[in-house]
């Protein structure tokens, strides 16, 4: 059960790059970090406009002198302070993640980066090696993976309750961009601009969420991949707003993934279903407190968050069973784990235990997924080796 007891001797000194005024993702990071009081925001470079970024930082309680014009100045100045930042979160467009993450790691900081980690595979491999060399954690913010019932699904697969995994069915298909909304929405415009977004739109923006979730729950590794993608809003080409992906896993299992921004009538449509020889589980982010469970020859059941029959890994409750937990709770669960893992407090690692969190390995796998999908689609939807 959640406790308000102090878990660290002091909160980690935390900074942000990006995520300034009007940024939903920036607020999500700040809310998550503040929830347990284990990180304290003390500095940032919040905006490409230095004046606007400073005004924003001051408006949320930071001193003006620690609201910097850019990430380079942020890292350099904070490194000279005895009370400088120890952790930085990166909430900027895709094409900037590599350079900022690399600079942060070289500055000796732990990093929490928005997804995708990078827009090409070589950069992701380099960041993984650098994080290991520097002895720092490079986490990637797959915010949906902090839900308790996702951990329950993962535990059931790991414990063998579903038998041999046969099928992983994934989708993240909404309808908000069925028309050319980017003409009046800068937040969508950069996502459909190859120089900023990378080689994909919906595959990298939302498809990587369900790919990572499928990997997390099933524990399977991808062998081959085949992708068909389309841009139904023609101005988005060569990037896609709809993609259908087939996956062959090592062993006998197969998977499908649908990522779409043109699924009219769907609010989110983020679902992962894992089917084994003995049973199946299904999780849907619009109903995150429930997990559909079925075993061969028995009626379908619904497991509810916060009950004693769940695996211990799914029993970190911020509020008791029956009270709905949501998006911000999932993010806060992950930030709690990040703080424990990044802290130098002697007891932090014991408190963390074997709790899972998304790291550079998840980031690298998802970048590889994004890149392979683009390569497959551009080669006439041919099957490609994943690694």
Task: Name the beta content range.
Answer: 15-25%
> What composes the largest sheet?
9 strands, mixed
What strand order characterises the main sheet?
13-12-11-10-6-9-8-7-14
Helix content: 25-40%
Tally of alpha and pi helices:
12
Task: Describe this structure as you would to a colleague.
This protein is of the alpha/beta class and 387 residues long. The chain has 2 domains: 12-143, Rossmann fold, CATH 3.40.50.720; 148-317 and 363-378, Dihydrodipicolinate Reductase, domain 2, CATH 3.30.360.10. It is built from 12 helices and 14 strands. It has helices at residues 24-35, 50-59, 71-79, 97-106, 121-134, 148-158, 186-189, 194-197, 202-218, 327-342, 348-352, 360-378; strands at 12-18, 39-45, 87-91, 110-113, 138-140, 165-173, 222-230, 242-249, 254-260, 270-276, 279-284, 290-295, 301-304, 384-385. The strands form 2 sheets. A 9-stranded mixed beta sheet has the order 13-12-11-10-6-9-8-7-14. It has a 5-stranded parallel beta sheet with strand order 2-1-3-4-5, with helices on both faces. β1, α1 (24-35) and β2 form a beta-alpha-beta unit. α1 (24-35) crosses α10 (327-342), α4 (97-106) runs parallel beside α5 (121-134) and α6 (148-158) packs across α9 (202-218). The longest helix has 19 residues, at 360-378. It is globular and about 65 Å long. The two termini are 41 Å apart. The mean pLDDT is 96.
């Amino acid at each position: 059960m959640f406790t308000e007891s102090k878990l660290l001797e002091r909160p980690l000194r935390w900074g942000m790059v990006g995520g300034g005024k009007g940024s939903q993702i920036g607020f999500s990071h700040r809310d998550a970090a503040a929830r347990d009081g284990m990180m304290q925001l003390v500095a940032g470079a919040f905006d490409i406009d230095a004046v606007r970024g400073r005004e924003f930082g001051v408006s949320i309680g930071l001193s003006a002198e620690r609201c910097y014009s850019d990430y380079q100045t942020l890292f350099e100045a904070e490194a000279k302070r005895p009370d400088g930042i120890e952790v930085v979160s990166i909430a900027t467009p895709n094409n900037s993640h590599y350079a900022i993450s690399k600079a942060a790691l070289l500055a000796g900081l732990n990093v929490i980066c928005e997804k995708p980690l990078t827009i090409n595979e070589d950069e992701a491999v380099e960041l993984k090696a650098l994080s290991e060399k520097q002895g720092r954690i490079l986490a990637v913010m797959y915010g949906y993976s902090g839900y308790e019932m996702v951990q329950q699904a993962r535990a059931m697969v790991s414990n063998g309750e579903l038998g041999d995994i046969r099928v992983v069915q994934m989708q993240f298909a909404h309808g908000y961009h069925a028309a050319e909304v980017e003409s009046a929405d800068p937040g969508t415009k950069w996502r459909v601009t190859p120089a900023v977004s990378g080689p994909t739109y919906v595959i990298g923006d939302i498809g990587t969420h369900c790919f990572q979730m499928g990997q997390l729950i099933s524990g399977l590794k991808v062998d081959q991949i085949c992708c068909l993608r389309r841009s139904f809003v023609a101005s988005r080409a060569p990037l896609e707003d709809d993609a259908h992906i087939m996956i062959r896993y090592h062993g006998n299992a197969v998977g499908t993934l649908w990522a779409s921004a043109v699924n009219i009538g769907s609010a989110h449509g983020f679902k992962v279903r894992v089917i084994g020889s003995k049973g199946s589980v299904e999780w849907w982010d619009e109903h995150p407190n429930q997990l559909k469970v079925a075993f061969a020859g028995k009626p379908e059941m619904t497991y509810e968050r916060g009950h004693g029959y769940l695996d211990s890994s799914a029993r970190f409750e911020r509020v008791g069973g029956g009270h709905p937990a949501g998006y911000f709770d999932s993010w806060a669960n992950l930030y709690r784990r990040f703080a424990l893992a990044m802290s130098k407090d002697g007891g932090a690692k014991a408190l963390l235990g074997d709790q899972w969190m998304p790291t550079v390995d998840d980031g690298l796998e998802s970048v590889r997924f994004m890149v392979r999908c683009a390569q497959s689609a551009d080669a006439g939807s041919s099957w490609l080796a994943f690694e």
